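Reopening closed ticket. The problem is back. First fold of the pair:
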Amino acid sequence: MKLGFIVLAHQGLDRTAQLVSHLSDEGCSIAVHIDKHVASSDFNGLKKALDGRENVWFTKRTHCEWGRFSLVQATLDAATELLERAPKLDHICLISGSCLPIRPIKQMKKFLARNKQVDFIESVSVANNFWVKDGLNEERFTLYFPFSWRNQRRLFDRSVDLQRKLGVKRKVPDDVIPHIGSQWWCLTAKTLRAILNDKRRQYFDNYFSWSWIPDESYFQTLTRLHARKIESRSLTFSRFDYLGRPFTLYDDHLPELSKSNCFFARKIWHGADKLYETLLSPDRANQPLSTADPKAFEAPFEAADELRCEGGVGRFHQGRFPYNQSKNNSATACDFTVFVGFRKLYDGFPDWVAKNTDAKSYGSLFARSHVAGRPADGHFAGNLPAEMRVRNRNPKGYLSNLLWMNRHEHQTFLFDFRDHPTITKTIAFEHRATIVMIQHAWLLELLNKQTTFDNILTNARRYHKLEQTFLAELDKKDAASTVVNLPLDFAVHDPVKALEKATAHIGLRRRTLKAMPFRVNTDGLDGLVRRLRNNGLPLVYQPAPGKGDPVGLSFEKPYVVK
């Protein structure tokens, strides 16, 4: 079995020299392409390091750019050079300068000897493609791409939008079914030579030169025209994240690499000394394919991708914000309680919670005029500033950071409908959140307000609407928080039981409550509720049994619908 390699490199040429030297020592023929962007001094240094190796050739250098045909051109030039220099090759493998052999080259040669007629190239039809993680699929073959996605992004996007509006659709060459797949392949010399010598080669080159990311489609498509037998997989392990960027392999991946069913792996970190020393050892033992477990090997990469997109429990990661993943994965690191309406019924309720329960208690974290009553230059644990501008810029992240610093404790804070509303969606979808709500608690604010009844009625209608909006958010199908709804009449007429129910999930410092928080005035509440009901407000409230109308609140006629 005569095996040849095409090596494309553009950085870390000292590591490329190690790789090429190893392949040369194993009796392989190698064509090396060095990106023309690489400095001449570095290129000359590589040539000097490989000087005297008769089975290593440097090919015509091309300025390569991601997503452009230049990468295909560099590969074609290297393939032509290699087949001219070593015409008796059986298989040619395309790898990068940052690849390393997972298994010994001798083992790879034996494997290919058993599969002499097989072309190993990932080749998936775009018609039923699951391969593309992000970006264009069929349109990469039917639109024109004259601009660089990386260096001319605005022109690239405008060009695509304009072509869509004009209905531009390039004709796909006859007998060609577009396929895509990994850039890295291992083809038989017969198939590769047929692609290079195809009579329509110039036509194909011109067609793919206007395509997007042709290095993932040129050989993957044309191999289908010439191959006798294709196994649609790459012999080089290369895992990409959700943005299409390759994962980097480090020294701690070494024990797991043998689980892969591939023969090469990329992308290897330049500083992975242990990987280079072990995987390029000439006396390395075979790694049986029978013990390979690709799913087990790729599982950590899938988990890392998920972690990158969704973050860890109670932590935000850079890639998490666009996906609003708090609906699927908790944005907070501990259980916490949101007391809604308690500020209206009790004075100093946060202090009472801190003294009588096992929870850490804050005030109104999301009040419009302050952050838990702290001065603007104050700070929470972890040096989190109690500053409204910081909090309002990202309320969800602010809450996540606040709770993280005391994540081994149950934490509580107050919330009312006129507080910063953005946080409502976060707490509604948090499975770690318990929302204890005194329904209609805003009535107590109106009860103790010195103003006209018309003003009270106007505000009551507004507060009722805000409350209904809040309840609707908690009642959504995908809402995950636990809701404890305490009717206002229950909280007023049986305060001990109401508070026990409100704090039952937290845990009390004592078996029974001995001290009650200071309650605001509730005299006249029954009459106010009756008066508002008679003016059309649908309130859920039962008056105290056996009590008459409070003095000073006369009965009002029901409102009249005209």
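Second fold of the pair, where the issue appears:
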Amino acid sequence: MTRPDLVPVLDRVAQQRPSEAHRMSFVRLDGSRSYPLSEIHDRAMRLAGQLAALGLSAGDRIGVMAANSLEWVLLDLAAVRLRLVVAGFEPAKFAAEPDLVRRYQLALLFTDRPVPDSDGPAADRVRSIDEVAGLIEAAAQPLPEPRDYADDEVLTLKFTSGSSGQPKGLAATAGSVNSSISAVQAWFGHGKQPDGDDLFLFLPLSLVQQRYWVYSAMCFGHDLTISTYEAAFPVLRTARPTVVMGVPGFYETARKHIEAQARRARPDESAEQAIGRCARALFGDRIRYLWTGSAPARPDTLRFYADAGLPIYEGYGLNETCIVAKNHPGAHRPGSVGQVLPGKQVLIDTDGVISVRSDFPVNHAYAYSAPGESERVFGPDGVVRTGDLGYLDSDGFLYIRGRADDVIVLDNGKKVIVAPIEQQLKASPAIAECVLFCPRQTQLVAVVSPATEPADEAAIHAHVAAANSQLARDEQIARVVLAESRFTVDNGMLSEQFKPLRLQILQRYRAQIDA
């Protein structure tokens, strides 16, 4: 299938040397390094030659389990050149063990974790990521002739949480990646601004959506700054990006920091001026726009940034669909997740549940999952059942109301959509996350992750009481279960995209919820 807007992004990344005018920077708490994109390309091609010399060829699979780094990017770009399949493993969910190599049929696994001592048959395939530098410096090896990607050719193996909490593997196709990046570029024009663009990303590169921006930089010519979640706030101002790619939780944390700083307003400025000044102090003075998605953003947080002079555009997508809809400078409707991308079709059934059909599907089934998982999500006609509730307005803007699974049916027949209530509770500065449950279908119980440690219990209960006064009787919170520690990725309560994992939270706090 061809479309006039479709750019062969991956073929350009693999075959064309980018301009020396643009740079890729890696910024961490212990320092920063910056390289011309042309040098990144040259290093990646040398690495590709060495991987080919080790016997790797198109379709072979390599794993990367490491924090964001130059080496991560070089391995990924080398894999694109050789048409290898990259499996990105989040260290919080996996261990760098030979069993991982066997389970996912990896030719090699590169990690920044300690490499275990083992004499097993897969032990020699677990390598330290520090070996990448040595491979690049070794004698140059010839590369096989390049060949264009087929649309249905697998680019990467990505992982998404299953209903059991175990990661499901999903093999993502080159066509799905090319079409998503092409549509985004048509709307946002990265690199086409008079002063150029520098995109700032800090979520793990194991999430293939984060690697989109690496491919975008190499293909379209713009700067890219790669950091980590821990370093994002300290380095933002000095990095001076034009675009920040973040999840809603990141922007909510940033908002609280900005508001705290703005309380110390200068005598000659208004509250609005203080907010704007502190926002620019945190994000730098070159911001063109902020990008958010992966979870619902609070409407008041979106308004906060717009009022501070930092446009923020919310979007919608799943691992199984890539980007489905996005607000952008040419079409922005607050409250929606934007207009549907070219090549995507949104279908809404009589219950309001969203399904998505794509010109270039991510895939038609999971590569690794429990029995029945693929059939539950992927329809026989290529349609993906998202499990989200929503609607389209007359201008084609998509609105998300919550998860179909998160609609609680009370014993009186009343249906309660929990997402808006959870968002209302999270408006409190004392509440970082909130997940609602309904034991015995009679009353709502809120499990609250506090924003501070120790928790400000008085503020939490006061906010819940204030919210209850505005909610219908069946929507009111009967009890609050206070988490003993804040939800994090490391303790298994948040996904790698910093979304609460409802099943894991229920399992951890079931006794208190059912009490």
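Update: turned out to be a display glitch only; the data is intact. The longest strand covers residues 384-392. The chain has a mean pLDDT of 91. Please close again.
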